[in-house]
Design brief:
Helix content is 26%, strand content 22%. The protein has 362 residues and is α/β, with parallel strands linked by helices. The strands form 4 sheets. Strands 1, 2, 3, 4, 5, 6, 17, 18 and 19 form a 9-stranded mixed sheet that branches. Helix 2 (21-32) runs parallel beside helix 8 (334-353).
Length: 362
């Protein structure tokens, strides 16, 4: 079967998988470098993961949005849903720079091809590139922790990935799990309509009450980068920067909405329970517990280290110099994704300049 797929694969210098911030940045730099490439995206329309965000996440609430290279995002209405604002921006960006994204294309596997090339497989076709920019982000892999009794809960359980906005929680008793920005945003708006909200986290939240300067930002990114360099699963940059102490957060702290409790020990049919005998009745458990890198399609290349992550130097996978991960680990932010796209293309240019027989595993 793979032989047939490979015979039908279209030869190309670079395949970009994903057309969010990181993928579009990579495509922009590839075009400027004159490198033959295709961009594949599984989403139905432009906008990357932003198109799936909940309607109440307006552009004014977005936790930092850096413009794509070569085109600013201007005059955006802060009251419009971020899914609309950024979706339209990405669509205009693709149009301006002639980035022809093939969608929807769901890449099922990337494996070793022949003659030093890779083989990128999907139900929509196959490609044989000399290098690959992987920009698949995390949205497709929501992380659901497991707790004793979870399957017995009679209420509703959902994740940030399918959070519909606050309107569906009117009159409900809601437990929000997680210590990140999304958990705080959910709590602040759900608490306005719910009968009661309860916030639980594994660690006490850390609130940042000062501007996060450039030097502090570099230090935070360095911590995430060190994990990736060691082959451990990446953590988000936000996990080491702390939570911004905005006016809305200050109000939530003052009102008690952001009164955090330690993580419960188990789940019962009617709520959540702690080992000391405390119990909280709940109609809904909302898991704002983050995401993991969506890289399962790279499994045939055996890039993972014993620690569970893919070891990366810059953007290059240490186990295979043809693979560049952008929007992964330290570049999993809008500004980081932009820079990573350019950095990946610079390394790919050097790779492609060598003899094709050399363009294989490091």
């Amino acid at each position: 079967m793979n032989e047939l797929v490979e015979r039908e694969a279209a030869a190309v210098d670079v395949v970009v998988v994903g057309a969010g911030q990181a993928g579009l940045s990579g495509a922009y730099h590839l075009a400027r470098a004159g490198i033959d490439h295709v961009v594949l995206d599984h989403a139905p329309r432009p906008g990357g993961a932003w198109q799936f965000r909940w309607p109440s996440l307006t552009y004014g609430k977005v936790h930092g949005m850096h413009a794509l290279p070569g085109m600013e995002l201007t005059d955006a209405d802060p009251l419009r849903p971020s899914s609309e604002v950024i979706g339209e921006y990405f669509a205009a960006y693709e149009e301006r720079f002639g980035i022809r994204v093939r969608r929807p294309v769901d890449v099922s596997a990337v494996r070793e091809g022949s003659a030093g090339r890779l083989l990128v497989e999907s139900a929509s076709g196959s490609w044989a590139p000399r290098a690959l920019i992987n920009a698949t982000g995390t949205w497709d892999r929501p992380f659901w922790p497991r707790y004793p009794g979870q399957e017995t809960f009679r209420g509703r359980q959902l994740h940030t990935a399918n959070y519909p906005g606050p309107q569906e929680f009117a009159g409900a008793r809601v437990v929000v799990v997680g210590g990140g920005t999304s958990a705080v945003q959910h709590l602040l708006e759900v608490s306005e309509v719910a009968a009661r909200t309860t916030w639980v986290t594994r660690r006490p939240p850390v609130f940042r009450d000062r501007d996060f300067g450039e030097s502090a930002g570099r230090a935070a990114v360095a911590l995430v980068e060190e994990r990736v360099r060691r082959g451990l699963p990446p953590q988000s940059v936000v996990s080491v920067t702390g939570l911004a102490l905005t006016d809305a957060v200050r109000a939530g702290l003052a009102s008690g909405v952001l009164d955090r409790r330690p993580m419960f020990d188990g789940i019962t049919p009617s709520g959540v329970a702690w080992a000391d005998g405390r119990h909280e009745d709940a109609d809904v458990i909302l898991w704002a517990t983050g995401f993991r890198a969506a890289v399962d399609h790279l499994a045939p290349l055996h890039l993972r280290e014993p620690g569970g992550g893919i070891r990366v130097e810059g953007t290059r996978a240490v186990r295979d110099e043809r693979i560049h991960l952008v929007g992964y680990g330290p570049s999993a932010s809008t500004v980081g994704a932009n820079r990573a796209g350019g950095a990946a293309v610079r390394e790919i240019r050097r790779l492609l300049a060598r003899e094709p027989v050399e363009a294989g595993r490091a």
